[in-house]
Amino acid sequence: MQEYTRKFDGLNLEPAEWELEPASWQGALSRVPPTLSAALTRAVRRVTEYHQHQRDVGFHLSEPDGTLTGMKVSPLDRVGLYVPGGKASYPSTVIMNAVPALVAGVQEIVAVVPPQGVTDVVLAACALSGVTRVFRIGGAQAVAALAYGTQTIPRVDKIVGPGNRWVAEAKRQLAGQVGIDMIAGPTEVLIVADETARPDLIAADLIAQAEHDEDATSWCVTTDPDLAEALPAAVDQALAGSAREPIARAALERNGLIVLAGSLRDAIEVVNRRAPEHVQVATDGAERVASGIRNAGAIFLGDDTPEAVGDYLAGPSHVLPTGGTARYSSPLGVYDFVKRTSIVRYSPGRLAEDADSIIALAEAEGLFGHAETVRMRVGGEAGKRVSG
């Protein structure tokens, strides 16, 4: 790890320097401006309240004869959280990954942060979100350290959090050795709009997604020819005042698209085929339109709900499936940080009742030893207890 950090990050850190002293990061909340401290606290509260509704206590199905089937739900022991550096600092990413794990009951949340340095606002988010340890390591090597463990870095059961393409590839290769949340691709938004939508708001929403990075995708699917005609000029005008104009412009030139649909039904079909990370519905009767959307990571309804509210404060984790994987994947949630264990207890009577069927199925599969384990119990002492 030390060699890779020196090679890829240009820092020669001794293993003793990797872990941040708890006092140095747990006190970060007092070092950020009060308005930012209040915003972080509010976000953690909202995300916690939402995800508490995802908790699953399992179930037990008992029969009068003592037979029992059920499901036990247990939290993972230890989770690793990758906190990226790159083009921006993202305290919201810490909150959206760590809080669901905390609500699930995970006891240890180990964060890895850029070795070159990390902002107080990110450290404050760690302190508020239930992170228990913080290490100054990054890149693919940090993912490997969390997956396998080292003399300094504890091995985790699952790794969550976004990163660059090297981090994503490391997670892909290590899946199976360790649990991962998903292989996250570039962020994306698809806006469904009709004649009621304002071009300036749609332009701003397209730019907001594009400013993440040059590979971000921003689409607008509209039924209104006038809106489709007005959008390019509205986007150009808004870009002129954008703080991240070069990044947003590059993303829009590469991956921006305006689709003119013949009807809202056609627009919904575009959404379902694209299966985007974020969908904004800027139409009359937004709830009705959303009811037809099957494939999306998150849906934002109406003019007063820009995607940014989901990034920071609405409640659901903003860790969402990308690249069309919303066809079969779900947002990060409490359910990603628990294990489900089946529980079965047979009574002597139930075993005797099911014995012939179990034996027949086992022998049909050529697993005669399986059949014998049942035959011995029904034909032996267990069988005598039943017949008695």
> Runs with pLDDT <50, length 5+?
381-388
Structural class computed from helices and strand pairing: alpha/beta
Q: How do the helices and strands follow one another from N- to C-terminus?
A: HHHEEEHEHEHEHEEHEHHEHEHEHEHHH
Identify the CATH architecture of the largest domain. Answer: 3-Layer(aba) Sandwich
Distance separating the two termini: 67 Å
Q: Let me know the average pLDDT.
A: 93
Number of strands: 13
Q: Please describe the biggest sheet, giving its number of strands, its sense, and whether it closes into a barrel.
A: 5 strands, parallel
Q: According to CATH, what is the topology of the largest domain?
A: Rossmann fold
Could you tell me the radius of gyration in angstroms? 26 Å
Shape: globular
Can you say what the CATH homologous superfamily of the largest domain is?
A: Nitrogenase molybdenum iron protein domain
How many structural domains can be distinguished in the coordinates? 3
What is the CATH class designation of the largest domain?
Alpha Beta
Helix proportion: 40-55%
Going across the biggest sheet, name each strand in turn: 5-4-3-6-7
Please state roughly what percent of the residues sit in beta strands, choosing from under 5%, 5-15%, 15-25%, 25-35%, 35-45% or over 45%.
15-25%
Secondary structure tally, helices: 16
